[in-house]
Amino acid sequence: MQGTVDGFSYGLVTPLVAYLMACLGGALGLRCTTRSMLVAQSWRPGWLALGSAAIGSGIWTMHFIAMMGFTVRGVPIHYDKAMTFASLAVAIVMVGVGIFIVGYKGARGTALFTGGTITGLGIASMHYLGMASMSLDGKLEYNTLTVGASVVIAMCAATAALWAAGQIRGLMWSVGASLVMGLAVSGMHYTGMAALSVHLHGTAEPTTGESPAGLLAPMLIGPLAFLLLAGVVVMFDPLMVMGKPAVTPVEHKPGIPARAHDTVHHNPARLRFRPRRPVRHQSSRAPQNR
């Protein structure tokens, strides 16, 4: 028996809130990635790790907020907590691998493609692992082509966002990239949900049960608190907000001449041009002239 699926049982509330959470996680993660490119090597892993956790938490929170609006008529839905949090770990780790590649190799060429691909696969893996944590009296079936389209959307979105983070063009550039990333992640989620159909077993009596919101809300407290804490870090770091280093470090390497802008500029006011002294012609003191 085919189940009646409703992904918008709360109307537009859950899609909008889910989109905002994806944007928040994307914005924090991209700013951390940008920040990592402006600091010394010793600080870079910390900022990249924070960015990975922010993006992973953002897309995970987006997914399960959207799932609050998912219902199957007459069938209670439960979630396996271990698998649910495993999907969060997969998202953070795989997104982290992609971000570290771009953070150390640069947002261009093979490094960008590899990092974007791994990050996109991490987003898709989180989604479908989170769906696998859902249990009900029925079987979940997916349309292969639609699933493939959702994975491609995730990979393209991740690549575009990492490319934007590598440009280091200021706050507004990353804000725009995070809005696009949030839209793409939400689009990937609902494309994946469009591929879903539920075949009910019909072995259990229809019940109302506990709502998905009541099941998922306690799980979201930790990632939401982390995103708020990461937001505080961003707000109180002027260099993070501006996206530009206060002082451009100058590298002095032996055998390499200094560039024009690395030379020391003297104050013109301190330069004094002294007039040349007139040359005096002394009379010859040769013996024959005495």
Automatic annotation (TrEMBL):
Organism listed in the record: Streptomyces dubilierae
InterPro entries named among the record's database cross-references: MHYT_dom
Annotated transmembrane regions: 12-34, 46-70, 82-104, 111-130, 142-164, 171-195, 215-236
Ranges of residues in domain MHYT: 10-199
Listed name of the protein: MHYT domain-containing protein
Composition bias, Basic residues: 267-283
Annotated keywords: Membrane, Transmembrane, Transmembrane helix
Region (Disordered): 257-290
